[in-house]
Amino acid sequence: MLPVPIARMRQGVSAGQTRPLTWRLEQLERLERVVQANGDAVLEALATDLGKPPVEAYYELVAVQNELRQCRRQLRSWLKPRRVGVPLSLMPAQAELIREPLGCVLIIGPWNYPFHLCIQPLVSALAAGNSVVLKPSEHAPATAALIEALITAAFPPETVQVVQGDGATAAALLQERFDHIFFTGGERVGRLVMAAAARHLTPVTLELGGKSPAVVLADADLTVTARRLVWGKALNAGQTCIAPDYLLVQQAVAEPLIAGLRARIDACFGNDPLQSADLGSIVNQAQYARLSGLLEGARQRGQLLHGGQCDPDRRRIAPSLIRVDALDDPLMQEELFGPLLPILQVQDLDAAIALINQRPKPLALYLFSAERRHERTLLERTSSGGVCINDVVLQAGVPDLPFGGVGDSGPGAGRRPWLRRWTWRWGFRLRQLHRQDRRDPLRDRRALRHHRGSPDAAQRPAQSAGPLGRQPHPGAGRQRPQPPRQRQPAGEPQRP
Predict the structure, then answer these.
(1) 3-class SS string, 271-287
(2) Domain residue spans in the chain?
(3) What is the pLDDT confidence band of residue 484, given thresholds at 50, 70 and 90?
């Protein structure tokens, strides 16, 4: 399956060839050159696979370019060893954390952001000094073919290899022993990846998904809330892992919010959303059939509040609002991953939190409210991969925040601080200090005070062994000379 075996890809890492900063920067520069030179081809491939409007496709390109630029600027400082303190009993030892590459890693990319979510983890893996096997999604064939062409032109196969194929190909790759597996996708496949990795005790990062709720309280600004919810839900035709999956709306503002959502959908996509240039397509017929079936069921039950138009030839579904009365509704059973937005009314924030906690922990959680006390309550009583207040999706745009889930939404986190995922090592270095050693005089004085100030310092021999068999510092067993005491003449009062 692999033209270059994994053992051979691991050799360069084991030999230390990938550790120098110059090697890592060279790989990032190679990748940056091919990305910049093929920007138009990336936009065209995303339009072919997902019908992405140019603005949405451009986001994927810019996200990768920003990641490359940030890594190149800060890589030197990220790779510096980090000093850590040692106990007094181990002084004058020194301890530090030293990051080292893991080896050969496997990246399995998704289809919803097929360029961004393949190349961004590749940036981190190369910057950390690893060799990489990259498996793009077969459900975005144009983008996968482009990625293979770019990577093959930029890197030797001993550094990066691209493997094309379906689920059987991915299963065969998982039989190999990698040093880390990074998977972005759904919960069902994520379980299979973790089970396969367990056979070799390979560490994994799983960026999955789940039903991410958005809570709207009565004190929220409904105009702003409607605008941001429609944007986040319609982005990439709802095929975003951190898109709001369903709404929990306080009863007092349910009708005004629904009216605002309707108006915003019409303003963004017009009276016929299927003809809008800003609406993307569902990735394939299987996903389209699943979503259109859920939509038709809601229509027959009288739950459809807005939208509902479908175009099977172009795999387009208009953004749709659907009323839901209970958690056992068919639309509440699994992550929708499409432009369908169920709306469930709740009495207050406590009721919303109770419903959230009945379900597996989500990848993202959103709250729209003007009061900080509601924010604190939500943070203290729920658990999720990330929380965003009074907006949606934007937490993924903060480069220094890790991105990942908890529980069913995926263990581990990608993005920065990326060295924690793609490297690992700790070190301990012992160095004997002498009085003439001026490199760390503060610690030398502390050690000297420790020996002098101990209760039995006067009785201890000057050259007795210190902790762990070390010789103490010169003068450690000597008492300080005391000034001569003057006699007080008899009859005079004692002076203070």
Answers:
(1) CCHHHCCCCCCCCCHHH
(2) 6-208+418-422, 213-408, 432-469
(3) low
Does domain 6-208+418-422 fall into CATH 3.40.605.10? Answer: yes
Residue type, 76: R
Phi-psi region of 415 (alpha: psi -120 to 50; beta: other; left: phi over 0): left
Instruction: Report the candidate in 257, 248, 219 with the shortest Cα–Cα distance to residue 350.
Output: 248
**Of residues 241, 310, 335, 388, which has the active-site annotation?**
241
Q: Shortest CA distance to 335 belongs to which of 177, 444, 466, 213?
A: 213
Backbone angles phi, psi at 86, to 5 degrees: -125, 155
What backbone phi and psi angles, to 5 degrees, belong to 343?
-125, 120
First CA to last CA distance, the chain:
91
Contact at 8 Å (CB) between 104 and 178? yes
pLDDT digits (tens, 9 = 90+) for 433-475: 444 444 444 444 444 444 444 444 444 444 444 444 444 444 4
424 contacts: CB under 8 Å, gap ≥ 6: 99, 100, 102
* pLDDT > 90: percent of the chain: 73
pLDDT for 420 equals 56
301 contact partners, CB below 8 Å, separation of at least 6: none
Please give the Cα distance from 10 to 424 (Å, whole number): 16
3-state secondary structure (DSSP) of residue 135: strand
207 an active-site residue? Answer: yes
Query: Where are any strands of DSSP class E within 154-271?
Result: 160-162, 180-184, 204-207, 213-216, 246-250
310 is catalytic: no
The C-alpha atoms of residue 289 and residue 282 are separated, in whole angstroms, by 10
Q: Is the dihedral of CA 128, 132, 135, 140 positive or negative?
A: positive
For residues 167 and 184, what is the distance between their CA atoms, to the nearest angstrom?
A: 14
Place of tokens 């983008």: 143
What does R_g of the chain's alpha carbons equal in angstroms?
A: 30
What is the C-alpha separation between 70 and 64, in angstroms, rounded? 10
Which architecture characterizes domain 213-408 according to CATH? 3-Layer(aba) Sandwich (3.40)
DSSP H helical ranges for 38-83:
39-50, 54-78
Residue 389 carries which DSSP code? E
| Residue of 60, 207, 335, 388 marked active site | 207
